[in-house]
Design brief:
- The chain is elongated and about 135 Å long.
- A hairpin with a 4-residue loop joins strand 25 and strand 26.
- 32% of the residues lie in helices and 18% in strands.
- Among the domains are: 207 residues, Biosynthetic peptidoglycan transglycosylase-like (Penicillin binding protein transpeptidase fold, Orthogonal Bundle), CATH 1.10.3810.10; 79 residues, no CATH class; 83 residues, Sandwich (Immunoglobulin-like), CATH 2.60.40.
- Helix 2 crosses helix 9 and helix 4 packs across helix 5.
- The termini are far apart.
- The longest helix has 18 residues.
- It contains 22 helices and 26 strands.
- The model has no long low-confidence stretch (mean pLDDT 88).
């Protein structure tokens, strides 16, 4: 190339480079609204974009009639030109020259997309020329369909409404595919003059433009005569519709987690509306007891997909924290962790499904758990302790199982809010000493339900789409199945009395009530669904009667009534063993067990023989116990069910058929030398301590036993007081009077002192 041609070549290179990079990358650097839909495409709610605009993320399925309308109005030859329509440009130029003002733009849809992408720069001749070049550049790398999608997503529709989809919801309260021809025509003409939409202003101008476009659509054969005439009579949009506000707490969470996205969730639209109405109805009832908040969560067991999400009572008064999402809020767990301890103990061999657990007053290092009813059974089967949610047996079970391993179980089940050490929680963890959210807890119960299936899927979190981070269940499926069986037998709330005859029997469920009646829980599951309910005050204020079985459980059962009748799990007896069990003790039967039953247990369950049935040697009359050193002739042997003294004291009050051991024959009783009462001494006079207000304080009774770790059972005036294991100290509050203290060890040896309190 000759030297004199270099400037032209360089200019051409510069122009080509500019042309290649003349469009922004990405084309639109705009923020978008967070838009949330139900699984069937119904809009649940949305949040404005970062710039406070209602600008929905672009879609790829524009309605065909809208495309026809917008092309007829804006760019009739859109599908035929390369980005610029020279005929339109010449007409616009001639019209503007003739009127000596801008009367016609001549811009194609492609040119308008370029202008929108560059944030509507000032209108100059130079800008118009660069728009034309950039429009041609846009057409080279984008299909016509894609260009229309850009236009529909970013065209202005008045105020802070941007894009076809946002305009459709704000002006007509429906999605774009549900609009009429007149509504499409209205949205086609608006971006050309968005100010026309203001209520009371320029309404007639907007009507004339819309109807003129409808006339063109009629001439093009897009509308028949009747459709055209009816469309012209349709009213114009007035005050904008509010964006739907369904499952608002879920929408807000998604807006925080992934703003500016289009979320197609697993929410069942009709179920969501019904669940919100259900909780709203109960919420009005609770207000009579100054309870203002509640939450309801419904999910599919197999997939973990959430079907309904009601984060708070709809319509809650502003002063009662209506915007707090109580599905995600950590609250005291109450008794809701007990099923996981039961399943873990089955898996580890600590218990068998129906093994007797102690249920009697207990003191553990200053911690004194009590049952909700403040009564005791002495001994109760493990499954019944779970189904009745007895506190004392479960605290003792946690003491056996140990807190650290149980914390590991909780975390593997997805209870991430329980994040402190065993020392922080102590044994109170099983009674509500830790905090969990309804989201975590319902997900953990769903995992338990999956474990009880014939072909269990792993533990996984709840979500609004397919979870991906499933993990292995921390206990075997058989243990999960027997846990579900125990929970299926839980006593129903008052509203569900007689449920065996009319309600759904195939629901495993658990309630929980936190200390001070601050939180009421109810979680239930079947083979298909899991439902979680929390009731209380967001402020943490406790209320009398705020109990899981009374307030939360009725909501849960009514929510189950919204779903198909549940099916129970199929027990295939995998990972199980067939056991000849002692019916009374729930242990493997020995030769001394009179009532036996063949049962299936988890393969890992406790298989130790029954320790309570034993052979006893009696005299010939069968009235007294004897031993060979004192009685040799005509001995009788009998089988007795013998519980430790403390358990027996309460058990005999519940079980009329319980037989105490016969007394020792005089002269045959073994010597008792291992046990000693240290304080008070026999015939002692004890001065009762009082505080400054004169209120009686505890006195501490003390004893010692030669065998380290021996369990001692304490009885005052025939009333069982408790047991001790390591430090044999027992604090009691006594009134002035005479007392007989009896202490018995596990072998039946006892020591007695009498004393007076003054």
């Amino acid at each position: 190339m000759k030297r004199k041609h270099w400037p032209y070549g360089l200019s051409l290179v510069i122009f080509l480079l500019w042309f290649a990079f003349s469009l922004p990358t990405p084309l639109f650097d705009a923020s978008y609204a967070t838009v949330v839909f139900a699984r069937d495409g119904e809009l649940l709610g949305a949040r404005t974009a970062a710039d406070e605009q209602w600008r929905f993320p672009p879609v790829t399925d524009l309605p065909s009639l809208y495309i026809e309308a917008v092309c007829l109005f804006e760019d009739e030859w859109f599908f035929y030109h390369p980005g610029v329509n020279p005929v339109s440009m010449i007409k616009a130029f001639w019209t503007n020259i003739r009127h000596r003002s801008v009367r016609r733009g001549g811009s194609t849809i492609s040119m308008q997309v370029v202008r929108l992408a560059r944030n509507n720069p000032s209108r100059t001749l130079w800008e118009k020329c660069t728009e034309m070049i950039r429009a041609f550049r846009l057409e080279l790398t984008n299909s016509k369909k894609r260009i229309l999608e850009h236009y529909a997503a970013h065209a202005p529709f008045g105020g802070n409404i941007v894009g076809l989809e946002a305009a459709s919801w704000r002006y007509f309260g429906r999605n774009p595919h549900q609009l009429s021809a007149a509504e499409y025509a209205t949205l086609a003409v608006l971006p050309n003059a968005p100010g026309l939409i203001r209520p009371g202003k320029n309404a007639e101008t907007l009507r004339l433009r819309r109807n003129a476009l409808l006339q063109k659509m009629h001439r093009q054969g897009l509308l028949d005569t009747m459709e055209f005439q009816l469309s012209c009579e349709e009213p114009l949009p007035q005050t904008p519709y509010p964006i739907p506000s369904i499952a608002p707490h879920m929408v807000q969470n998604l807006n925080k987690e992934a703003p500016g996205k289009r979320h197609i969730t697993s929410i069942d639209y009709n179920l969501q509306l019904t669940a919100e109405a259900l909780l709203n109805r109960y919420g009005r009832r609770w207000q009579g007891n100054r309870i203002y908040n509640g939450a309801l969560l419904i999910a599919d067991v197999q997939t973990g997909k959430v079907l309904a999400y009601v984060g708070n009572v709809p319509g809650t008064d502003e002063k009662h924290s209506p915007y707090v999402d109580l599905i995600r809020a950590p609250r005291s767990s109450g008794s809701t962790l007990k099923p996981f301890l039961y399943a873990a103990a089955l898996h580890s061999g600590e218990i068998s499904p129906h093994q007797l657990l102690p249920d009697l007053p207990t003191i553990m290092g200053g911690f004194r758990p009590t049952n909700f009813s403040e009564t005791y059974d002495g001994a109760v089967s493990a499954s019944e302790a779970l189904s009745r949610s007895l506190n004392v047996p479960m605290v003792r079970l946690l003491q056996w199982y140990k807190i650290d391993p149980f914390l590991d179980i909780c975390r593997k089940m997805g209870l991430k809010s329980i994040d402190k050490s065993a020392g922080h929680y102590g044994l109170s963890l099983i009674l509500g000493g830790g905090e969990v959210s309804l989201w975590e807890l319902t997900g953990a119960y769903a995992s338990l339900a999956r474990g009880a299936q014939r072909n269990p899927t792993p533990v996984g979190p709840l979500g609004f789409s397919e979870p991906t981070d499933f993990e292995k269940l921390p206990f075997d499926g058989a243990s999960a199945y027997w846990t579900a069986e125990a929970l299926r037998n839980a006593s129903r709330p008052i509203e569900e009395r007689g449920w065996e005859n009319f309600a759904q029997p195939n629901i495993a469920w658990k309630t929980g009530t936190s200390y001070g009646h601050r939180d009421a829980w109810s979680i239930g599951f079947s083979g298909q669904y899991v439902i979680g309910v929390w009731v209380g005050n967001a402020s943490g204020e406790g209320r009398p009667g705020l109990v899981g079985g009374q307030e939360a459980a009725p909501v849960m059962f009514e929510a189950f009534g919204l779903l198909p009748a549940p099916k129970w799990f199929e027990n295939t007896y995998e990972n199980t063993m067939q056991v000849e069990a002692c019916v009374v003790s729930g242990r493997v039967a020995t030769e001394h067990c009179e009532k036996r039953k063949t049962q299936y247990w988890p393969l890992t369950a406790n298989s130790e023989p029954c320790p309570y049935h034993r052979e006893v040697i009696l005299n010939q009359a069968g009235t007294h116990r004897v031993h060979r050193n004192c009685y040799r002739e005509n001995l009788r042997r009998a089988s007795y069910f013998v519980l430790p003294p403390g358990m027996a004291w309460y058990y005999r009050q519940k079980e009329a058929g319980y037989r105490d051991l016969p007394p020792w024959l005089p002269g045959c009783k073994p010597e008792m030398s291992n046990l000693q009462i240290i304080y008070p001494t026999h015939k002692a006079e004890v001065v009762l301590p009082r505080d400054r207000d004169g209120k009686l304080k505890e006195i501490v009774l003390k004893a010692a036993h030669q065998r380290e770790g021996e369990t001692l059972f304490w009885d005052i005036n025939g009333v069982f007081q408790g047991e001790t294991t390591i430090d044999h100290h027992l604090g009691v509050v006594l009134r002035p009077g005479k007392y007989v203290l009896t202490i018995t060890d596990a072998s039946g040896s006892s020591s007695v002192v009498e004393f007076i309190c003054d």
